[in-house]
Each structure stands twice: as structure tokens, then as C-alpha cells.
Amino acid sequence: MSDMRLIVAGAGGRMGRALTRAIAESKGAVLAGALEAPGSDLLGKDAGVLAGLPANGITLSADLWAMSKDADGILDFTVPAATIANVAIAAQRGLVHVIGTTGLSASDNAVIKSVTNRAVVVQSGNMSLGVNLLAAVVKRVAKALDQSFDIEIVETHHRMKVDAPSGTALMLGQAAASGRGIPLDEHSARGRDGITGARRRGDIGFASLRGGTVAGDHSVSFLGQFERLTLSHHAEDRMLFAHGALKAALWAHGKAPGHYSMADVLGLSDI
Asked: The whole model's pTM is what?
């Protein structure tokens, strides 16, 4: 099979540049386009140079329809509005759409899922192998321990992150809720402040820390009487997310239309 031709959305951003480097470092994929927001000062710049590589002749453009003519997939770690704008074009062009964007609303996710009867979408709050293994373990532990064990999720990210809790924290919360057999949206405790009263039994708590240049730290604690168990993951470089997204795209190339996750990519969906 020939190399998979991939577009990087948000190619001028930190994750976009990491994705460009990951494609250049890996076999089986080539950069086919570099998408950036309309009006960006980076339009027309060489994607390779922006990523700290030799010039590759792929310049940043805001025209996804034109650049996707000969592409096979798109790696999309942008913002909700941009991702939703990309969904229809990706589906119409038959692109594999790998979505790592966080902060998506329920209606945004409904739009994404609406195209998966005819398009291939791989969506995850975190593309790393370690985090997805952590989510599988969290689900098993939550299933094994009853509600006498409280669940608390703490995440730390760099000062520039705009959404909270992180997509990864919510993914871990969903894993814990699935293990318990409860809906996360009805058992989620966030933003405690002031006189909150005692902790509600069965809730899954979230706390978000922001500062510095942290790529992403996540921990899930199960707190029982006289003991606690904490499972954690520490991301040291966002390149791990870029390589995970590339792995997802290559895995999805040629798959039947559907909505997939990194658990599917890594063979963890049955856990």
C-alpha cells in the first residue's frame, strides 16, 4: 500500500507542528496539506520550517476543500469550532478523520457521530498508549471497588490550555463511570468552592491545575476507609500524542465507516 497522505489541521500550533514532525519521522505516511485558520499570520508559511524541519514545500492554507482533493486523512487537534467545520468536508472527501480536539460539547459530538455512517472517525481525548491503558485499568478497578471507595481525578496542564477538565480527565472519568455502571453527567463533581457540604456518595470528582509548560499529568485516586489507591500517567512531551494520532490514522486507513476510539486502535475495546 502506498504512503497515507495526511493533512495536519492547525499546522501552525504546537500540536500541529508536532504532528508535522511525527509524519516526517515515520514510515507509511506523508504530509499532503497543512491547514490553518482563515486570517492567520502563518498562512503561506512552509509547514516544515515551522516544525523545525527543512522546507517541505507544503505551505499553510485555509482551504481544506482544495488541499483534501488528493488526501487520505486529516489529523485534527484544533478547537471545537474548527473541528466541526472540518467534519463535513472530511466526510464528503472520504478522509479518515482523527480527532484529538478537546472541549467539544454534546452537540459537537453529535455532529461528529452523525457522519460516521459514511465516514471513518477516530476520536479520543488522549492519543497516548499509556493513557489509554490507564483508562482500561481505571474501568476495571472502578468495577472491582464499590461505592465505599470515592473516586477523584486530578489533572495538570500548561498555562495556555483553555478547557477544563481536560479531555483526558473526562475520558478517565467516563472509564470509571462505565466500570461503576453509572452515567458520568449525573455523578460528576467539579469546581468545589465555599461551603459545599459533605461529599455525595458515588460522585466522581475532578480538579484542574494550570501552570508552566506541563504537557499533561493525570491521576485517578480510589479513596476508601484507611487506604487509597492512585493510578497516574505523566506526559513528558506532546510528541507522544502526535505519534499516537499517526498510529490511529494508519490503523483506520481502509476501515469500514464508523466511530472508533484509541481503545479500538490498541485492541483494548473489550476491557
From this structure: 0.81
